[in-house]
Design goal:
It comes from Acetoanaerobium noterae. This is Glucosyl-3-phosphoglycerate synthase. Pfam families: Glycos_transf_2. The mean pLDDT is about 90. This protein is an alpha/beta fold. The protein has one domain: Alpha-Beta Complex (Spore Coat Polysaccharide Biosynthesis Protein SpsA, Chain A). Helices cover about 40% and strands about 15% of the residues. The chain is globular. It has a seven-stranded mixed sheet, sandwiched between helices. Helix 5 runs parallel beside helix 8 (about 200-225).
Length: about 220
């Protein structure tokens, strides 16, 4: 089966090379696409160092949801399995092998990476509880990793779900759409790391944006019902 991995990246010069190297260590034949979301640092330069990586660009920063939709339009018709991995997970991106196996061998439609507990204190769990409660309310299913952006899909899933939501509610919105369509999701424990937000001003601003965007997604879905 043909596998593509999409990596949306915005100002990820510190980790993008390691993320690419980790993906290259996965023992499957993978076509890698990095979607630059208007980076102003050396992200594009570092991606171009890898001759077998496809770089997709469109100019200004438009957010993760836009980047994923942009990338999907380029690959959806040519691959059987498509994965989303964030640009900041470094060489732990090689753990994505664990996300591919259940789709190849266990008849699972979608896998989501279940990260280990955070090493430093972040928020107070409001965003995670909102994610869990929102998904359960609309689908009846309990998904504990609804905020995780590390996911792999059978092509058929991405072909029939609604357009990937924009903003910080992208993962929650996708999870609800997937489950409502009757597809199977498996949460897979992985040993991945990413840039964690702490209990500081920038961290709280990030979590507020997440909370706000998820609320907007849930309201939008409630109005459709």
């Amino acid at each position: 089966m043909k596998i593509a991995v999409l990596v949306p990246a915005y100002n990820e010069e510190n980790q993008i090379r390691n993320t690419i190297k980790g993906i290259m260590n996965i023992p499957y034949d993978i076509d890698l696409f990095v979607i630059d979301d208007g980076s102003t640092d050396n992200t594009v330069k570092y991606v171009q160092e890898f001759k077998n990586v496809n770089l997709l660009t469109y100019g200004a920063n438009k957010g993760k949801g836009f980047a994923l939709n942009f990338g999907l339009k380029k690959v959806i018709g040519n691959y059987d399995i498509i994965g989303f991995l964030d640009g900041d997970i470094g060489e732990t991106s090689s753990e994505a092998e664990k996300l591919i196996k259940p789709i190849l061998y266990d008849k699972i439609d979608v896998t989501i990476a279940q990260f280990p507990s955070a090493k430093k204190k972040g928020g107070f769990g409001f965003v995670k509880r909102l994610s869990f409660s929102g998904i359960k309310y609309f689908t009846g299913k309990e998904i504990y990793s609804g905020l995780s952006g590390q996911r792999f899909f059978k092509k058929e899933v991405l072909e029939i779900i609604e357009e990937i939501p924009f903003g910080y509610g992208v993962e929650v919105g996708m999870t609800i759409d997937i489950l409502k369509k009757g597809f199977t999701i498996k949460e897979v424990p992985v040993v991945m790391t990413h840039n964690e937000t702490g209990r500081n001003i920038s961290g709280f601003i990030h979590r507020f944006k997440q909370f706000y965007h998820i609320i907007l997604i849930l309201i939008k879905k409630a109005l459709k019902n």
